[in-house]
Amino acid sequence: MNRFSGTIPPQFGNLTKLIYFDLSINQLTGEIPPELGKLRNLETLHLVENQLNGSIPSEIGLLTSVREIALYDNILSGPIPSSIGNLSNLVNLYLFINSLSGPVPSEIGHLANLVELCLDRNSMTGHIPSSLGKLKNLTLLNLFENKLSGEIPPEIGDMTSLDSLTLHTNNLTGSIPPSLGNLKNLTVLHLYLNHLTGVIPPELGNIETMTDLELSQNKLTGSVPHSFGNFTKLQFLFLRENMLSGPIPSGVANSSELIVLQLDTNKFTGFLPDTICNGGKLENLTLDDNHLEGPIPKSVRDCKSLMRARFTGNRFTGDVSEAFGVYPHLDFIDLSHNKFHGRISGNWDKSRKLLYLIMSNNNITGPIPPEIWRMTQLGELDLSTNNLTGVLPEAIGNLTALTRLKLNGNQFSGRIPEGIRFLTKLEYLDLSSNRFSSNIPQTLNSLPNLHYMNLSRNKLEERIPMGLTKLIQLSNLDLSHNKLNGEIPPLSSLESLEKLDLSYNNLSGQILPSFKDMKALIYIDISNNNLEGPLPDIPAFGNATAKALKGNRGLCSNASKQRLKPCPVTSAAIKKSKKKDGNLVVWILVPILGALVVLSGTFTYYLKKRKPRRTEDKSDSEKGESLSIFSSGGKVKYQEIIKSTKDFDPRYLIGTGGHGKVYKAKLSLGTTVAVKKLHETTEITKQDFLNEVRALTEIRHRNVVKLLGYCSFRRHTFLIYEYMEKGSLRKVLSSDDEAKRLDWVKRINIVKGVAYALSYMHHDRSSPIVHRDISSGNILLGNDYEPKISDFGTAKLLKTDSSNWSAVAGTYGYVAPELAYAMRVTEKSDVYSFGVLMLEVIKGKHPGELVSTLSSSPGTTLSLRSISDERLRMPEAEIRDELLKMVKVAVLCLQANPEFRPTMMTIAAEFS
Fold it and tell me: Looking at the structure, do residues 697 and 797 belong to the same domain, yes or no?
């Protein structure tokens, strides 16, 4: 393998006796020279994995001796020349992973010796030409991931040597031709992700050699042909997301080689075939969202190979303790929304790799067996909406990996166990609709990641514990329909809280004025308590219906729609209304000045805490202002910064952002630094300055840019950073040459580095920091392409004594929806921006409208090819898997509802 660059010299066309020409896996650019058409003796042409662009020259049709052409993994565009039909000796044609457009030339049907034809992962349009049916020697036909339309020509059935036919991910319509049943040598047939209609032709069952049949995500109707029982070698059968009906033929499971069977999201009825796992190799079984019924076959109970199983949304019956066995490789099982009965088996703890155990919405009874509390690897336990009884033991605290615990809708009694405090990864807790009694444990304050908690419809008593006020991630809290008493505690620290239901309790006293700090709150129900006094003046109460406030005799409000008695006008209120403007100004200025004093004190405290060696320098003219340089190389003077930038001459300008301009400064000690000079020192930019200093003096992470010093003079306000040689990620991606050097491995490492830094900022600090402006312009790269997050001018510390209600911040195209319309700051705002950034890294440019599409349609699937940077060749399998994982995570990050986005801790763990 070489690393040639530049263009292919046209002089190669003079080597008329050349037989073999291979320039693969280089960095060649430009077009394929038409002079290569002179190589009449050439038998092999390989230009694979370069960055060749332009169209395929029509002169390629002059290579009458050529047997193999491989131009895949380039950036070739335009149509395939029809002259290619002249290559009568051609055996293999590989043009996949390019940007070719136009129709598949019908002239290809003239290539009688053709054995392999791969035109996949391009942008080809039009119909599949029927002339391809003439290719009697063809064994491989790949046309997948194009934009082909029309029907599958029945002539394809004449290609009797075909071993693999992949037409998936196109816009094909019509029915599956019965003539495909003539392909007696076929092992792979992929037609998924098209718009095919009609029934599955029974003739497909004639293909006894079939190992991989994938017809998912079409509009197929009717039943599965009984002839599928002929597939004795079948390994993969995908029929999911169609409109298939009727029973599943017993013959479907005849193959002893079956590994994956996906039949979900159809209208299948009847019982499962008894032989569904007789071969002992079945790993993936998905049957959800059908109308299946009856017991689970013994072959499934004994299926030791099973890794993932979904039975949800059917009518399966039987004793759940007897229907399922021990599965050493199982990591996911969902039995929800069926009619299983009996008790939970103690054997589940023998499935050592099980991460998700879901049995909700059945008729399961009895206590949870103690063996369940030994499953320390469990990430989700959902036993909701059954008839389970008993007391939850303290051993529940053993499940330290749990992120979701749903036990609602059962008949559990006794106290909520204190052991729940050990479930520190828990994000979702639902114990509602049970018979829990006594008080709410104070120790629930030990769940720092909890965003949903529902304890409603129990028999909980006493006061709401103060410990709940420490659950600062909480967005939904429901304590309704209990016997709680006392006053509502100060919940203002729950700045992420959106929904609060305290209805149907015995709460009393006034609603604290501190509720006004809960800017995220959009829904509240306090009905049927003994509360009194005025409602706080916030939108959640202002928009509350009369139903959400009723049953509190002492409440008052002057809003007519709430149907409460009016609040009395006090003498203090009358006096307040008569204040003159001067007094009003005083009342406004006093808290503002007080806040500035506190901020200044906090700022000084943070700087004093900082321990690196530091020098200070104040010129006479700048006395009373501040300059602090943190440096390991000795004293650095203010004048040296001015001198090295020639008083911020534009020649030294290396970047401009929303908060200031960045200059390159080479100091006398040989150190190069970046100096960010803030725009005119308005109050806003002073705040940006303080935000950035405060944030960066607190952060110690390899993927966050280092602050080396700062200056705040009347003349200048600037920050001094370590210098990042490559500049911003946006700059690198905007340059074709730089972007090509930024290969897939480097891009993956950039995404991982940013993920680790954000996880640290959000989860590994006592006061989380939200950046609020994650974008490619704020990710800086060093010579080794190690990423560092910069520009903390809009950063916000999420503390229990500060508000999450904020002005809009961020870069257009990266701002989370809730910041755009509600101005509510949480870590999930950064998660959204990170999702945009991931797609930008893969695509090589901002994903544009794709962002809003994914945000509004979270079920959208993306192919890697459709969003990959065309300047890079498609990656090898291992790297491709990493990129596909990134795409899936990005889609999750772009969910419109912040509650459904993953945390950066979860994302960082996924990338570890």
Answer: no
Residue positions forming the annotated binding site for ATP: 677
Q: How far apart are the first and last CA of the chain?
A: 31
**pTM of the predicted structure, to 2 decimals:** 0.65
pLDDT of res. 896: 81
Q: How far is CA 327 from the centre of its chain?
A: 29
Containing structural domain, residue 258? 208-310
Do 667 and 707 fall within a single domain? yes
- In this structure, what token pair is assigned to residue 390? 């008993």
Asked whether residue 130 is domain-assigned, the answer is yes
DSSP 407-471: --SSEEEEPPPGGGGG-TT--EEE--SSEEEEEPPGGGGG-TT--EEE--SSEEEEPPPGGGGG-
Contact 61, 38 (CB under 8 A): no
| 35 and 115 both lie in a single domain | yes
Q: Distance (Å, rounded) from C-alpha 231 to C-alpha 214?
A: 13
Q: Rounded to whole angstroms, how far apart are CA atoms 893 and 912?
A: 17
Among candidate residues 73, 478, 773, 830, the one labeled active-site is 773
Q: Are residue 738 and residue 776 in the same domain, yes or no?
A: yes
> Is 662 found in the same domain as 690?
yes
Closest of 80, 21, 31 to residue 51, by C-alpha: 31
Looking at the chain, how many residues does it have?
A: 912
Overall number of domains in the chain: 5
Alpha carbons 901 and 662: distance in angstroms, whole number: 34
For the cut 60, the answer to whether the pLDDT of residue 583 exceeds it is: no
Q: How confident is the model over 246-302, as pLDDT tens digits? A: 999 988 888 889 999 999 999 999 999 988 988 889 999 999 999 999 999 999 999
Paired with 712 in beta bridges are 626, 717
Q: Are 267 and 244 in contact (CB under 8 A)?
A: yes
Residue 651 sits in a domain whose CATH number is: 3.30.200.20
Backbone angles phi, psi at 832, to 5 degrees: -60, -50
Q: Over the range 71-107, which residues count as b (16 or more CB within 10 Å of their CB) and which as e?
A: bbbbbbbebbbebbbbbeebbbbbbbbbebbbebbbb
Are the beta carbons of 100 and 78 closer than 8 angstroms? yes
Beta strands in 42-133 (DSSP E): 44-46, 68-70, 77-78, 92-94, 99-100, 116-118
- 390 and 352 both lie in a single domain: yes
Mean pLDDT in residue range 230-254: 91
* Mean local confidence (pLDDT), 133-140: 96
Closest to 799 in 3D by CA, of 494, 500, 490: 494
pLDDT tens string 398-437: 999 998 999 999 999 999 999 999 999 998 999 999 999 9
Known catalytic membership, residue 773: yes
CA angle 117/122/123 to nearest 5° reads: 125
Identify which of 438, 440, 443 has the alpha carbon closest to the alpha carbon of residue 454: 440
Helix (H) or strand (E) holding 190: strand 188-190
Q: Taking residues 562-576, report their average pLDDT.
A: 60
CATH code of 388's domain: 3.80.10.10
Closest to 778 in 3D by CA, of 863, 718, 703, 697: 703
Does 435 reside within a domain? yes
**Mean pLDDT computed over 713-727:** 79
The tokens for 325 are 């066995």
